[in-house]
Records
---
Amino acid sequence: MDHKDRERVLVEVVQRVLDAYGHEAQHLEQVIFDTIFEERKRLETEPDRDRTLKQAHQYDRVHAEALHADPVRQRELLKGLIRTFADEIVGHFDSRVYGLATRAVPHGLNLLLNAMSPIKLARSLPNGLRDMDEHLDIIGHVDTVKDLAKRGTLVMVPTHLSNLDSILMGYAIYRMGLPPHVYGAGLNLFHNKLIGFFMHNLGAYKVDRRKKAYLYKDVLKTYAGCSMEIGYHNLFFPGGTRSRSGGVERRLKLGLLGMGLNAYVHNLIAKKTKPDVFFVPVTINYELVLEAETLIEDHLKEAGKGRYIIEDDEFSRPRVILDFTKKLFSMDSRIHIVVGHPLDVFGNCVDEHGRSLDHRDRPIDRTRYVLRDGVPVFDRQRDEELTRELAHEIVKSYHANTLPKSTHVLCTAVFQWLQERSPGMDLYRLLRTGGSEESMPMAEAYDRVERTLTALRRLSAEGGVLLDDELTRLDVPGVVSHALAHLSSYHRRPAAERRGDRLFHVDRNLLLYYRNRLAGHGLERGEVLQ
Amino acid sequence: MSVSDKAEVVVVGGGSFGTALAVILRDLGRGVRMWVRREEQADEINRERSNERYLPGRKLPEGIRATTDMKEAIRGVPVVLLVVPSKSFRSVAREVGEHLRGDQVLVHGTKGIEVETFRRMSQVLREETCALKVGVLSGPNLAGEMMAGHPAGSVVASRYDEVVRAVQRLFAGGHLRVYGGRDVVGVEVGGAFKNVIAIAAGVADGLGFGDNARSLLVTRGLSEMALLGVSMGGDVFTFGGLAGVGDLMATCASPSSRNHQVGEKIARGKSLQEVQSSSPFVAEGIPTTRAVHLRAKQKGLHLPITEAVHALLYEGKTAAEALSSLMALPVGDELSALRY
């Protein structure tokens, strides 16, 4: 975001959030004290004492003053809090850095991933600096999205499995020839100095998920909305956080999604020539996931005790990232980014001319959804429901555009076998003990993988999932060994491994994790898998 | 024929319920259009002010303008009420979809389920039109009584407040009290499923079993309705309302209910074919029984009354056999299936 727009957006964000809280003393007081309460709670757990002390003093001052202030002064104090949050969130975009970064990325995405020296990195990779292009396939509605980028504001909404996602998406956006996108990145991404530098200058804004105050979330949402409104393409992960279970997102964060509609209505009211906002659901499909072990472990912790923010995972260790990418690349593993059919803010499909279409492919005049007596208006209840329609369509798109890999197929087949062998056994017990049998004959594994593949083919013919070329090219033993090679390459312990003519389950948490990618597709209920 | 430009609502479908709704709205002074399939029926409504086939002997108020031109019918009308049998619902909805705009409210009053797909009517509307503001109107609404101006109640359910308000505003001040709701699934399942139970109640009446038996069927039927509805995502409380127990009471007790008549006639020895060919009316309970039977089988739901009605309609069992098979079932706890 350039300097002029940055100022413009900041002013608008502060004013809108402030206006939303009105002028009433009781209301103002409540939001100020709630914010201070939440912030003090957060500061108690912050490691950086010097910084927290300064902030704590600032909050003490606001608190003391707010206790005796009249509504006019309270609004000023609230404005101060909003401004502080807004300043912290807003990133800036530097076209020179963007140029540098995008030139560097195709050859050295790995350089961005860790702060090691390029020479060391080059030596450690099997074929020197292999081109990232070889390992990343971008398929789907790329051309439509490129056309739409000229007609309105894009909002990329990918599935989220790994912290590598934002970097890959940043690169994919570049490779598709799209203008840079503004995106909210968790603070932990900024901790790595090099990544942080690029993040900051590539349009990323900071999201501190430890800040629980509603005011902070309002500022974040409003910032995203305002940037969409003035035409900055956005990227965010609507699942809110990396999928812990390994499954495809089913519930999306409606608040941030709703900012698309909000921006659209604002633009219609302002009679802008290009008022449109288009959502682009994207799935990112890995054969292996960098943080799989940590994420599934967190998922399996007792409900409510899971950590929403994980800062000490694989992503925080450059060595592990390096190891991961090295292994992945040396096995000729491909990462697929599938660009789904773009949607309007109501969830209707949009064609390359920017026209919304109904299920029968008839064009729709989308402005009419938000008209009342012929005039575009906001209506909170209506807009929430309309956003639900959008979320529903995005989730549908995620499922249809999931591209299962050999690891998912094998883990689905093995996990199902595991469950069938110990009927009625509680999931946690099954994961801990492995049930009654520790291995199965390879022939049975082949048979089960075959059945899973048949089910996937059927599902794919119905448009319920995509089929990887690899899965159609390889025969069943080929798929199994491809999967086993991956599973044993990077994780501390493999999900499953072959010894002689038998297949042993080893890390059952990982089995569950990779199998979950296909859960919700109807395979596990026996409807498709027979 | 040119259709009134000041219309506030269009009723799509010229059956008895649709016409009754048009009459109530016109009596309240609303600008009402009707879309009907046949030219002769449109002419009859416009010139003779009658709809003899569906509401024999009734005079329609002035000012209801009927047309067969869907484009003309729908243009500029804020609220579209779609009241056509479930069998032709999709094709009519598709026609509506050719002309409907996103700011128009689309509410249906069809108490059925699409047999082949088990889609609810509002789902069909989403597939066949661009409408997002979709709702359902359902309740104990026997057309004859409504036409006579007797008090009645109904519920309009939609996820959009705007839809609920628009329909309530239309009917405000009349003898049809329209309550609002959010549970579209529950209201649709209630409206469709009660027809299955009405057939069963008709059978009991046809066999001369009396009030105890009918009451047993109605309450156990309500349980089945709730079980099915909850399995589809409905709210269990909805079935205690107008679209659930309310509709069941009226349909199962009233000899003028079509579905009740179907059950009664079959119990007295007529075949399904004879019953169907003897009436111009569509008894929605017949296809709904089939649809629910298939769904229950697929999902493993235990719906014994539905099974008995299915056996009667489609498997050649006699009325006595079907009902006695119900009596032979083991007796469990009354509400066990619903405690979840």
---
Amino acid sequence: MQVYTVAQITGYLRDVLESDGVLADIWISGEVSNLSGSSAGHLYFTLKDEASQMRCVLFNRKRLSVEMENGIAVVAHGRISLYEVSGAVQLYVDMIQPTGVGILHMEFERLKAKLAEEGLFEPARKRHLPAFPERIGIVTSPGGAVLHDITNIISRRYPLVELVLAPTTVQGESAVPGIINALNALNDRGDIDIIIIARGGGSIEDLWAFNDEKVARAIYSSKAPVISGVGHDTDFTIADFVADKRAPTPSAAAELAVPHRDEIETRLQNYIATMAASLSNSIQRHRQHADDLSATISTQVKNGISVNIEKLRGQELKLYSLSPLATLERGYALVQSHANGEVISNISQVERGDMIKVQVSDGQFNSRVTGSKKGLQS
Amino acid sequence: MKKELSFEQALKRLEAITETLQKGGMNLEEMLALFEEGAALAKICHERLHKAELKLSEVQTMFEKDEESEESA
């Protein structure tokens, strides 16, 4: 017969208790009694009901969201283990709430505090969304209005993308593994620029998968940046806190994911106007060609700028009117040296007998210089 | 114009051309060539914005297995 030491048995008991999944993550309700505090800030108390009691210790008073006193009814969360010095089984409390607060709400607050402490919500780790995504993954239910709304909005704003649906249930028991699986399926492709994780509105029970720790960690470790769009204007979910960007609805998430093509149109117009103005300025500075050319371009540029963007929308850009080609159509010509292609802008560049190339609106012809005279033709 | 430019690349190139033209300091031929390239890029971007149609595809997930338990969310 083997004889054990006390330490061997308490150590063994402790191992048994700590390897149990239920005891590692447990909520217990009861009444507070024998409350005492230590100088180090720890709190010791007993939770009891009619039949029994359990020792509790709380090491971190910051987690207290309730004023502790003997006799109050609370719900405590923590893990159960054995304190070998006294041989007592006790609950190591990490969260305590007055009873009456819903258990889902308590679990939400507990998980939020835990993940915040781990740094999952840090603004510094949130990733930037690419300005012009090419492929957007959508984690949502394939049947609902959510996908329809997202598709509509992106199609209207910026139809240059490919939407890749990763279908999943978003409530009920299969929602948590489903959402994680869908996120992984998108990330495994390696070509997704943004992931939108979305669901329509609902009660806290309906949205529960978005408050799940495993889902939060899957969002945190996603390769592609994640936008959460869980339809609940007022309340946040854990998924909202951990996502790189949070939108209050699926539609708002779609709007965050892509630019608006009207804004890009405005940019295009500005580029064209700037380019044409630069060209015109440069021509003026160098006094090349006739002054008429720059005047023409300037006028057209001014006209181009003053055109209302609204009017331009949906129309073809009238680029040709800004192009020097239009000037040629009005009878001006571009003269280049036949030998080296240099643009001829003053008479010192040619001598009698030189071959020149003359560019007009519909083509070019060669010509020979028979003479030259200083001064503008009257 | 290279067809394989992405929309973002085309827009970036257009932006760069605009900046180069603004700085100036080159001859007329070079400016004309840049202007024409920029104008063509602007046209391409404009056309892509207005002619593109949203593409939809799907990745395989475990969803198919429990399709009958789908809820309308």
